[in-house]
Amino acid sequence: MQKNTLTAWVNGSFLPLELAVVHIEDRGFQFADGVYEVVACVDGVFLDLDAHLARLESSCAAIAIVPPFTRPKMAALVKEIYDRNPFSRAMVYIQVTRGAAPRAHYPATPLTPTVVLTSRVLPQPSTASLEQGYAAITRPDIRWKHCEIKSIALLASIMGKQEAHNAGVDETFWLDQHGHVLEGCSTNVFAVIDDVLVTHPLDHQVLGGITRDLVLRLACSNGVMVSERPWRLDETGLTECMLSSTTNAVMPVCRIDQRLIAGGKPHAVALQLRAWVIAAMESPAS
Ligand SMILES: Cc1ncc(COP(=O)(O)O)c(C=O)c1O
Asked: What pTM value is reported for the model?
């Protein structure tokens, strides 16, 4: 198979990426009226593909878009876009918008959703990041009140990422009005507090990360105590922080707002969880 050019899937056709376009009146473009998924694949094996497709369906349902395909058909498309692109370690992007129509907040007629899939290389952390862990800043949460929906309306997250970039760090962590750490712009966040792995419970303030779920399952099955509760960075007994996402697996976070966490070095629980998640990616049956 010729794999020199990148291939996208747009509304029923596989096309060279540079020819893959959507209508200027697509509601994704004009209103961010859509949802998305990112799925990781290593050597042809997808990590938790079914869970990602289930979340895509619930995101669609939350904004009253009828899922465009059955789950098996969507899974087949995801696999085909992976096969048609040159990356053995890939992240497949799926976007579903309400469709294209003359601009009006409420569309005059039912629309056919726009569906786009691409496959890009799965990013790898640098050696320096693996040795030193990530750094983050915290900011008051400025996002909307339905963070459990994986919406393409990501302006607040982009502003958070810009601030992180300008501060020379990797991520911005959103805080609620009580100083609880909710999640990052594109990551879930965990701490180790008094030897318990702690993360914010699932509610409208956080996305139910597929990797978050995997981390909790791996922790439980390996005897790490887990608590889903609101938590703060100034709690005594906090010894580690880490983030999780499809594109990061688990990464230790060792500097937050200039404060060193765990003495500024990746520590045992984060490294162990990273190793378990990566093992799950590389051999999901184990
Ligand atoms: C706000 C937010 N939280 C958490 C995550 C991590 O989710 P997952 O592990 O499913 O990639 C993401 C991923 O994009 C995200 O955007």
From this structure: 0.97
Q: What is the pLDDT of residues 197-209, one digit of tens each?
A: 999 999 999 999 9
The span from the CA of 25 to the CA of 153, in Å, is: 16
Pocket of ligand 1 (CB under 6 A): 38, 183, 186-188, 207, 209-212, 244-246
The residue whose C-alpha atom lies closest to atom 14 belonging to ligand 1 is 186
Decide yes or no: CATH 3.30.465.60 for domain 7-121.
Answer: no
Give the pLDDT confidence of 158-203 residue by residue, as tens digits: 999 999 999 999 999 999 999 999 999 999 999 999 999 999 999 9
Ligand 1 pocket test, pick from 213, 246, 247, 274 with the greatest ligand atom count within 8 Å of Cβ, gives 246
For a pocket test of ligand 1, which of 171, 173, 186 has the largest count of ligand atoms closer than 8 A to its C-beta? 186
- Which CATH code, of 3.20.10.10, 3.40.50.2300, 3.50.50.60, 2.30.30.100, is assigned to 127-282? 3.20.10.10
* Weakly modelled stretches of the chain, pLDDT under 70: 1-4, 284-286
